[in-house]
Amino acid sequence: MPEYTVHEVYSYLRLRHASEAIEFYKTAFGATELFRLVEPGGRIGHAEIRIGNTTLMLSDEYPELGIVGPQSLNGTSFAIHLHVDDADAWIARAVAAGAVATRPAADAFYGERSGVVRDPFGHEWLIGHQIEEVSWEEMQRRYTALMNG
User: Fold this and answer.
1) Were 14 and a residue from 35, 36, 63, 69 both cysteine, which residue would form a disulfide, CB within 3.0 to 4.6 Å?
2) Distance of CA 15 to the CA centre of its chain
3) How do beta strands 124-130 and 79-83 pair?
4) Closest CA relative to residue 25, chosen from 3, 56, 46, 1
5) What is the pTM of this model?
6) Which of 133, 130, 135 is nearest to 82 (CA)?
7) Residue 4 contacts residue 10 (beta carbons within 8 Å)
């Protein structure tokens, strides 16, 4: 079998009001806009932003092509994890920008303090920072204990 190389993996967010989302991500997460491709009618066909050292791609919805976002689906099936220096501060920043905290920051068994926000466009963001180094074996032990009550 021939070998193939994956060069990078990108998250591609589909959402309503991509232009507003770009501005939200700038305010909430310190995103930098790299570029956008805009139709004559104003719909964004493709845009790229950078948060930290990660590029996210996004576009407006194209329901005629089956491209819809969380608001059209009435929910999302994934979350983006931001590993930051201070989860509480970043969650507060996102909420101040218009996100809703769906799980407040708390210390977790896997050695991270984290919480969850939902942005105004329906995407979930797990925001956390490391509080201790935990081996995979210890993490499994703690997880098993947690699941056993």
Assistant:
1) 69
2) 13
3) parallel
4) 56
5) 0.91
6) 130
7) no
Q: Is 12 helix (H, G, I), strand (E, B) or coil?
A: strand
Q: Please answer whether residues 11 and 80 qualify as being in contact, where contact means their C-beta atoms are separated by less than 8 angstroms.
A: yes
At 149 the pLDDT is 87
DSSP secondary structure string, 75-143?
A: S-S-EEEEE-S-HHHHHHHHHHHT-EEEEEEEE-TTSEEEEEEE-TTS-EEEEEEE-S---HHHHHHHH
Length, in residues, of the chain: 149
Residues 69, 11 contacting (CB under 8 angstroms): no
* C-alpha distance from residue 75 to each of 46, 66, 71, 86, 115 (Å): 22, 16, 6, 27, 18
Give the pLDDT confidence of 77-121 residue by residue, as tens digits: 899 999 999 999 999 999 999 999 999 999 999 999 999 999 999
Angstrom distance (rounded) from CA 90 to CA 85: 8
Give the three-state DSSP class for 60. strand
